[in-house]
Design a protein that fits this description.
Helices cover 28% and strands 23% of the residues. It contains ten helices and 19 strands. It has helices at residues 28-41, 66-75, 103-112, 180-193, 247-258, 273-284, 307-317, 365-369, 381-396, 405-424, and strands at 17-26, 45-50, 79-85, 117-121, 132-136, 144-148, 168-169, 171-176, 203-204, 225-233, 245-246, 262-266, 288-292, 325-333, 339-344, 348-351, 355-359, 373-379, 434-436. Helix 5 (247-258) packs parallel to helix 6 (273-284). The longest helix is centred in the last third of the chain and has 20 residues, at 405-424.
């Protein structure tokens, strides 16, 4: 085993486990359709960690609200448990689309959803419980887990080829095999240590007062992938994780350092000096890098630029000076035939067509140092290549299954550049969705 091929880390709670299957689900509609199917087929339990659950969100194919699907499972005897984020006063502006346990939420639960169990969990002040995971039938041989970044947000459900501004691109991976035990351990640790568990309004449902047992066995082998579950956990959040955990940061840096040919990244942000420095070093040794970010970032362009911020932006802009580097965004076709930006909400990285990570962790300070985050990193060339082919089929409207990773990234760059030229001419007839952005001015002036 070499670092180049399997750049896993040993700084966290969970080991690298062999014998797993990994299946990607790209965008919200396919992902939530599959999650609903898994819930409907569950034999023992459905446990989920939820950050945002918009009041207007509905599951695919007329299934109703997420709580409708979960209540239906609970009424047939399935143990349904949710850990929901409760924003504090510093993050109170995010309560609108969080199921945070308001008085109205409790009234709704009493009327319609008496059978589910919920605990609410605050984060460290100013941070977020940002994990998005679904665990099906923990402790059974058939246990499965979904780990990714897709919120219960209606903007996640529109398919990418024909959608306007505000719609999201995102990814989950479905896991089966020994690594599911670590997703279970994470859930139990958070359930038992949920900050609001003793508060009058800190839990819901008969049985929500009962703590869970940690897993004592791993599910049997289900495939060929090596998988490691990685996290960000703020120090002091849970009684048995007092020092916290930063394996998401460690993993990103280790994998970028290990890359030999290609790095493909999708993220909401590129805001961390450690990641920028690692990418700069990779480019210097000849690694090709394609980075997909939101064409219209959430960071305000008019925000005050401090001296430290100016230095960071200059260091980040230096990446654009490499011939091996490409920054892109996505834009779909709206109902009026014009192109509109698609918001990149995915958090993933593919290295050398052999190794990947998918999860909730953004490349900014909050996700890498303070939020609760959960990623699944995996080595399995067949699974990683399949994920790359599916992503590029969506983004480029091209089949790259006959190409190696280096050729596929060259094609990505060519098509993105051609689409940028078409956009400059006012021509919405692109190939796929990807177009090139300028990192030297990214986030400081509009580029679409």
């Amino acid at each position: 085993m070499t670092r180049s091929l399997r750049p896993f880390v040993d700084s966290g709670r969970y080991p690298t486990r062999g014998g797993n299957s990994v299946r990607p689900w790209i965008d919200g509609e396919p992902a939530f359709r599959r999650i609903c199917q898994a819930i409907e087929a569950a034999r023992h339990g459905v446990w989920a960690t939820i950050t945002f659950m918009w009041p207007s969100f509905r599951m695919p194919d007329g299934r109703g609200a997420p709580l409708d699907v979960l209540e239906s499972a609970a009424r047939r005897g399935i143990d349904v448990r949710l850990i929901c984020w409760r924003p504090d006063e510093e993050t109170a502006g995010l309560r609108t689309n969080a199921f945070w346990g308001s008085a109205d939420h409790f009234k709704m639960l009493a009327r319609h959803y008496p059978s589910v169990k919920i605990r609410w969990d605050r984060a460290a002040p100013g941070y977020c419980q940002h994990q998005k995971s679904w665990l099906i039938d923990a402790d059974l041989d058939t246990a499965a887990a979904f780990v990714g970044g897709i919120n219960l947000n209606p903007h996640s459900l529109v398919m990418p080829g024909h959608r306007g501004e505000g719609h999201n691109h995102d990814v989950y991976v479905e896991l089966a095999g020994p690594a599911v035990a670590d997703v279970q351990h994470n859930f139990v640790q958070r359930w038992n240590g949920a900050s609001e568990r003793a508060a009058v309004d800190g839990r819901w449902g008969t049985g929500s007062e009962v703590d869970l047992a940690f897993p004592i066995r791993t599910p049997p082998v289900q495939g060929t992938a090596d998988v490691q579950i990685q996290r960000t956990i703020h120090p002091g959040s849970y009684f048995d994780c007092a020092a916290g955990e930063q394996t998401n940061l460690d993993q990103y840096c280790a994998a970028i350092r290990a890359a030999r040919r290609t790095i493909y990244l999708e993220n909401q942000y590129l805001e961390v000096p450690e990641i920028v420095a690692a990418l700069d070093a990779a480019l210097a040794r000849g690694v090709a890098v394609v980075l997909l970010l939101p064409a219209v970032p959430q960071l305000a362009a008019a925000a005050e630029i401090t001296a430290a911020r100016r230095t960071f932006l200059a260091e980040r802009a230096r990446l654009a000076g490499s011939d091996n580097f490409t920054l892109c965004g996505l834009a779909g076709v709206a109902d009026d035939g014009a192109r509109r930006p698609v918001y990149v909400h995915a958090k993933l990285m593919l290295v050398d067509d052999e190794w990947a990570t998918v999860g909730s962790c953004n490349l900014h300070h909050y996700s890498l140092f303070g939020n609760a985050e959960l990623n699944a990193a995996f080595h399995d060339p067949a699974s990683v290549r399949a994920l790359r082919v599916e992503l590029f089929r969506e983004h480029l409207a091209a089949d790259t299954s006959a190409l190696d990773d280096a050729a596929a990234l060259r094609l990505f760059r060519r098509i993105a550049e051609e689409n940028t030229e078409r956009h400059a001419r006012g021509d919405p007839h692109w190939q796929g969705l990807a177009f090139r952005l300028d990192l030297t001015t990214y986030g400081q002036r509009p580029q679409f």
